[in-house]
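re: ur question from earlier - yeah i can do the single chain one, its not a big deal. heres the input i used so u can compare w yours
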Amino acid sequence: MAYVLNQGIRRFMQTSVRRSAQVEGPSAVSGQHEGGYKIWKNITFFLAFPSIVLCAVNCYLSHQSGHHDPPEFVKYDHLRVRTKRFPWGDGNRSLFHNPHTNALPDGYEHH
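and the output i got, formated as tokens:
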């Protein structure tokens, strides 16, 4: 009797696990490997690439519009604090200093 009961429980557990593992519809894990890659392929071609092109066009057009003046310099006490000199150059400019966009503690550089 215990053998029959044990076999019945085993069969029930195996079929319930199989039923819960089955996936309906397209999925990358459905066993037939259908659908998952198609979704990502379509997202790449119809969403990612056009977004990259639109961003590139936006950057190009904004660059062509002319020279961009930096914002008006306001000397705040908590910005551009120099407690120690930088170990390169004159000690006042950061390593990636850009005179058009980065202000010094006294203001923008005038060229």
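The radius of gyration is 32 Å. not sure if urs matches, ping me
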